[in-house]
Design goal:
The protein has 295 residues and is α+β, with helices and mostly antiparallel strands. The chain is 27% helix and 25% strand. The longest helix has 26 residues.
Length: 295
């Protein structure tokens, strides 16, 4: 005799664990959203829910979130001077030729005398580079046609007097050729910026902790344990490798969109040649409920 197997009742799946998990995820997302707002708030105090699931309830612990900044400086080991030199004539590769061409009939001559003036200061030829391209476009004040070259001079162990001497000599030589030094920039660097980054990071963390302690005193609370630490990452690839971005802003009345000007920040003839590293660190501290013992 054949017997048919009895149908087993379908097991019932409990939805309670899934609902509890969804609540945890939702609360975590809300906490992360508040934390992101705190990072963008410039160091203001923001209270966060510190979610600690583990029972029927989800206790929330308020926190103080503060951003601190720190900087470190060191003498530059190398400088790159850039001079954007303009003439009132259409683009021509002869403008950057090595053979001087004296100004005549209102047309400016070669860039060669400018290079010679820099060489007389003891700079090696290998430290000077001339960039000539139609992309170096500028607009002259008299609406005439213009063209430009960019002279780049690499200086090891720079000092301010040497940098100013190069800029002044190039300016004088350019004037005699009826050329205009339109923009001057300089980029400073060191072989290894990591020690400066470490100093800046330490200063930023100390600044953030001091700010948190000051806010806790004002609020009449006590700081608990550190729950979150975050550091702002460099947005420029050059800043990740060096201490500061190499590219400048190029915001001046002569520069036209779509053209190439300086690729380093503007030169300050009175500022010491230093490299600067700047970092921001954001810290979040839990708040203890007892009153602070600090005065």
């Amino acid at each position: 005799m054949r017997t048919m197997p009895e149908a087993q009742p379908a097991s019932r799946i409990s939805l309670r664990p899934f609902l509890a998990g969804a609540v945890v995820v939702a609360l975590a997302i809300a906490g992360l959203a508040l934390l992101s707002e705190a990072f963008a708030s410039g160091g203001q105090t923001v209270y966060l829910a510190n979610i600690a699931p583990g029972g029927k309830d989800f206790p929330a612990q308020p926190s103080i979130v503060v951003t601190g900044s720190g900087a470190a400086t060191a003498p530059a080991e190398q400088a790159i001077i850039q001079l954007l030199i303009v003439r009132a004539a259409p683009f021509s590769q002869a403008f950057a030729a090595d053979t001087p061409a004296p100004a005549a009939n209102g047309t400016a001559g070669s860039i060669a005398p400018v290079i010679d003036a820099i060489l007389t200061l003891g700079m090696p030829e290998g430290a000077i580079e001339v960039v000539s391209s139609p992309s170096l476009i500028s607009v002259c004040s008299n609406s005439a046609q213009c063209s430009a070259v960019r002279v780049e001079v690499t200086v090891d162990r720079p000092n301010l007097d040497a940098l100013n001497a190069i800029v002044n000599a190039a300016g004088e030589a350019a004037g005699k050729q009826e050329l205009t030094v339109q923009d001057v920039g300089v980029g400073y660097g060191v072989a290894d910026c990591r020690p400066l980054h470490e100093q800046a990071r330490t200063a930023a963390a100390t600044d953030a902790r001091n700010r948190a302690e000051a806010q806790a005193r004002v609020l009449g609370v006590a700081l608990g344990s550190l729950v979150v630490s975050s550091e702002t990452a460099p947005t420029d690839p050059e800043a990740a490798r060096d201490c500061a971005p190499v590219r400048g802003t190029n915001v001046d009345a002569w520069w036209t969109p779509g053209s190439v000007g300086l690729t380093v920040p503007a030169f300050d003839p009175q500022a010491a040649p230093e490299v600067v590293a700047v970092l921001q660190v954001t810290l979040a501290f839990a708040i203890r409920q007892e009153a602070s013992s600090s005065p």
